[in-house]
Amino acid sequence: MVEVRVNGAITVVNAIASWKGAAISIDFEVRAEAEPSSELEVPEDPLVREAALLALKEVGGDGVRVRVDSEIPAGWGLKSSSAVANAVVLSVMALHGRKDLSEALRVSVRAARSAGVTITGALDDAAASMLGGFVMTDNSRDELLMRIPLREMDVLVLLPERQAPRSTVEVDADLLRSYAGTVDSIFSLLPGRIWDAMTLNGLLYSSLLGYDPSPALEAIRLGALGAGLSGTGPAVAAVCERCEEIEEAWSTMGRVVKRRITNEGARIRG
What is the pLDDT of residue 164? Predict the structure, then answer.
């Protein structure tokens, strides 16, 4: 048996508008176990099934038994789909001796596209989840532009009580892409001004998607380095050195979860 653990992530620049994206790995965790089987035995989930099938095709396997356990809230913009695809693909490939993270990352992105859970292929989200640290990508070319470590600071995640999770593919991509030039301007701040880019991206996407920007603005007022909508929401993330006041203010708005930036990539055991 092989066990794989991968991370969740938060958005710095959402790739839907211009295909260029950036994300940061945080220590939310998805765990997948793979063991030999004569047939395909996976949970009843289209993404898990597609990820296992593509990984088997890559390694020339016939069957596999996969179990998945995720602590990432699904549908909130915290990269749960990318993390699940990563964990499943890497566990199946590692079971066959293929443990290269970059190779598994490429298969994972294909699986997410094939399963219809992403608009862009989400290379930025998947790369942050698989590799750790801060990543910049061009999703139109499936190109990892940069991966660098960051100081492992605290991250607060707000799950607003008045807003339900929804699928990324439900958003109006054409509307968002009409703002490609604006998002490119935000992307050009990277990597030097990560926290400014995160905040500006969050304000723009909150406005376009109909979310209240006040939680992020309040976090900035109370000292967050950067704060904004993660993915297509509704989760809001704030990176902070002293988080107590932000956590107290956000506690009246919904559920608050405290995590940390992590530079550690996927972990393989077995």
Answer: 63
- Strands (E) across 77-184 are located at 134-138, 143-148, 154-160
Span 94-132, pLDDT tens digits: 999 999 999 999 999 999 999 888 877 799 999 999 999
The Cα 234–Cα 158 span in angstroms is 9
Domain 2-149+263-269 class, CATH top level? alpha beta
Residue closest to 76 by CA, chosen among 247, 205, 263, 232 = 232
Pairing of strands 134-138, 226-229: unpaired
Q: How far apart (Å, rounded) are the C-alpha atoms in residues 121 and 139?
A: 7
Separation between Cα atoms, residue 239 and residue 224, nearest integer Å: 6
Residue whose token pair is 């935000």: 186
**For residues 206-215, average pLDDT:** 95
Question: For 144-159, how does the pLDDT look when each residue is reduced to its tens digit (9 = 90+)?
Answer: 999 999 999 999 999 9
Q: Are 92 and 56 in contact (CB under 8 A)?
A: yes
Do 123 and 109 meet the contact criterion of CB atoms below 8 Å apart?
A: yes
Paired tokens of 51:
């990820």
Superfamily of domain 154-260: GHMP kinase, C-terminal domain (3.30.70.890)
Helix axes 101-115, 123-131, angle to 10 degrees: 140
CA distance 160 to 270: 39
